[in-house]
Amino acid sequence: MNTKQSKTKTPFSVFMRTLYTEGLDSEGFEQLCEEIFSAFYKAKVKRSFLFENSNTDFVVLSSDRIAVDCRHPAKSPIGRPAVEKFFLAMKSRKVREGIIVTSGRFAGTAQKHVEENDLPITLVDMEKLAAMAYKAGIKLVYKKEEPEAFTIISNSDREFREHLAKRLKQELMCSEDIGLNVTILSRNITRVPFYRINYRVDAEFEASGKIIHREKGEGYFYVSERTGKIEDGSFAKIFDMVPRMAYTPEGKEAGLLKPRKQITESLYDRVRSVHTKYIPYITGSDKPGVKTCIPSKKDITVQNIMCLFLPVSDVEYELFGKSRNIRSLESSSDDFIVVEPSRHICDICGGRFAAGGTVCVKCGNIADAKHGVKCTRCGKTLCVSCAFYVSRFLGKKEPICGACANKETGAKIKSYK
Ligand SMILES: [Zn+2]
Ligand SMILES: [Zn+2]
Ligand SMILES: [Zn+2]
């Protein structure tokens, strides 16, 4: 390695952009080539058609005009006829230099033909393209560097019981240790797929004949295969962090490696809304205006799709003797996502609530703030059905537990109803 290279390596690795070939259609591949060649030759790229009835070519404008022929997807190797045809088109358009770039491979006859006839054509395969990209400050990911699907290690029953108890402790008040009063009755684990879809946006917006905004960015979303729902940030926070293992889906599961069309469509919608900007500008008649800049579908490139099979567990558990069901999406950490019930349900009134409820240590009911009480004598947490009330002056009632009620002498004691 010479000094020049090692000097430039550090800033490159810090600021290097990454482009992916995964998931690109022919148009996307052309865009990718456009970016790489324009960075490599430090030249503007102009699209034009080199062949009649063909729309797959573009021309790099540098000191010399260079014609580029993009071949993707390329199922069969590119041979001598393709090179001959390209050279004829170059001659007729008076282009002196040409590049054929493919995501596939070149047949030996193609390279031989170029060499024997000393043609001004460079054959660029992905390895070569990646090398050119690297020199231009772009990391090109073209090999499957990672397997397509992953999973994570699911918790043991004992671990899950601990995580569940911890969660219940955070959300519910209880005078006794919830951890000692949770029992897992059954736990059934299945794996359901989620997609992590990486995208890139690059859009230009014009108003009054001027470019007023360029929206560039990249990101990713997790999407559920089952519901098509785009998961929120807390999902990413958990599942970005947990260690993944390569997973080889088989049979029906293997068919889920590629997301359904609706799923990528919903991603486009989300990306469009995330990257919509309202840009102020001066109109043709010198007045201030605001343009709503919404990237179009062609401004968005899906770069990489990873399939993550996550363990979903259906659990029946007992809390203070009362049995309950919970469906959750587990991680190998102590974080998990409760799918159903999404919120606690008050056993007295059926109302839903997120936190601040009470566990009745007598009957195992979960009660919301309105239907949970604390014994004013011993502090036991109860539901209103299990509580007694001591009448005080001016109609004031104090909730107490049964044991404390027996110790009360002379007071007027009533049950809830
Ligand atoms: Zn209630
Ligand atoms: Zn109760
Ligand atoms: Zn009591």
Summarize the structure.
The protein has 417 residues and is of the alpha+beta class.
Please give a handful of descriptors for the protein shown.
417 residues, Trna Endonuclease, Chain: A, domain 1, Herpes Virus-1, 3 domains, seven-stranded mixed β-sheet, 9 helices, 26 strands, elongated, disordered N terminus, binds zinc ion
Description:
The relative contact order is 0.10. The strands form 8 sheets. Strands 8, 10, 11, 12, 15, 16 and 17 form a 7-stranded mixed sheet that branches. Strands 2-3-4-5-6 form a 5-stranded mixed sheet, with helices on both faces. The chain is of the alpha+beta class. A hairpin with a 6-residue loop joins strand 18 and strand 19. It has helices spanning 3-15, 26-40, 80-92, 108-117, 126-135, 157-171, 233-241, 261-274, 402-407; strands at residues 17-20, 45-47, 57-61, 65-71, 97-102, 121-124, 138-141, 149-151, 172-173, 182-207, 210-224, 245-246, 277-282, 288-293, 300-319, 322-330, 336-340, 344-345, 352-353, 357-359, 366-367, 372-374, 381-383, 388-391, 397-400, 413-415. It folds into 3 domains: 3-141, Trna Endonuclease, Chain: A, domain 1 (3-Layer(aba) Sandwich), CATH 3.40.1350.10; 193-309, no CATH class; 357-415, Herpes Virus-1 (2-Layer Sandwich), CATH 3.30.40. The structure holds zinc ion (ZN) (3 copies). One zinc ion binds at residues 375, 377-378, 380, 400-401, 403-404.
Which CATH C-level class of the largest domain is it? Alpha Beta
Helix content: 25-40%
Query: How would the global form be characterised?
Result: elongated
How much of the residues is beta strand, in percent? 35-45%
- Counting helices, strands and paired strands, the structural category is alpha+beta
Rg (C-alpha, Å): 32 Å
Main β-sheet description: 7 strands, mixed
Q: Point out poorly predicted stretches.
A: 1-13
Find the count of extended strands (DSSP E, 2+ residues).
26
Counted up, domains total 3
Output mean pLDDT. 85
